[in-house]
Amino acid sequence: MRKIDFSPKNYEEWLFKGLGLKPGEELTSRILEPIFKLNHAWIDGDETMISVYKFDNRLMVAYSLYYMTMQMPKLWFMIDRNPQMLDDLFNQKESLHIADMGCGPGTYIWALLFYLYAKYPRQLGKISVIKGVDHSNVCITLVRQLFHALVEFFPQFQHIEFQFIEDNWQNQIKEKYDWINFGNTINESDDNSLLWVKEVDAEIVSVIEPGNTKTFQKLLPLRSIFMEMNWHIHFPCPTSHECPMSSNNWCHFHINRFANPLIQRISNKASRLNSRHHFVGYMFSRFSHQHNSDHWRVLSTLKRVKRSGIRFLCNGQSMIEAVVNRKDKTECNKPFFQAQAGDVIHINAKNSDCLIHKQRITKNDAITVLTDTS
What we know:
Strand content: 15-25%
Distance between the termini: 11 Å
Structural class: alpha/beta
Radius of gyration: 21 Å
């Protein structure tokens, strides 16, 4: 799996300074016990803990060190596969106002800034205002601490006006923004009406939530409303049609939780050895894009059976479990085996009926990876 890590070299120094921690404390009970507590709450579906953990300073410091670091690559995974969307945004805007609704300790604020710092350094000057909104005073205190450390370690961000507001995000949604992010926000919200979607005034909306069937099914109505309002979807769906997923299925991806050495150290100490961290995500925008029904999102890693290749693909209209028989492997369809989960591939199928209905890729089907950013 392609490594996705845009953490700056002095990431740990910044993080420890902002959280008031000393190197080595990440392996002590001060951090490990809250991590165990949070992990068990999410696994057990402890609704009480899930609703109050943001108001516990000890839990949130541990969360910020471990889970915040772990979750940043989810945003990187999505935007790194949609470079045209970012290009369109920067080409059309000279000054950007970005908001993170339910920002927590600033997980996706920092993730976006570090990504732009790594891949779009010349465009950083266009970021004028970043607003973080959360109803937890503990989170707002932590995000401010991390901000003060940020501008100390990274002078490239000193020109940005940061606003951190303790409020329910629904009260801040009507303002005009260029980019709104929702991270673990909609899933934890008691408001299931989704009426707020029609009040969104932005160019880009990104949504990142836990990777499970329940969350995915909860987000499908959100996707439908955006489609009804003529937004364009950039991730994961290549085209803007009704989702072909059944009610007992879920479209999800995973990042490697061990991409960051800090997570490796803590996970080894905590005996958390599963490298996969699943998520559900969407990216919507006002910018059109060129994908069509010949473009397929790769939904799964490659499964090899007797030298044949099998993986799930979706073009936004149909989801198939595509097979390349070992006898049909050619240079034309070789990219089917090389693509990474999350990539978009173009399939120039000689027989579309064979692809859609028989779910077979033939030796003459030419395949190109469109989103390989390695």
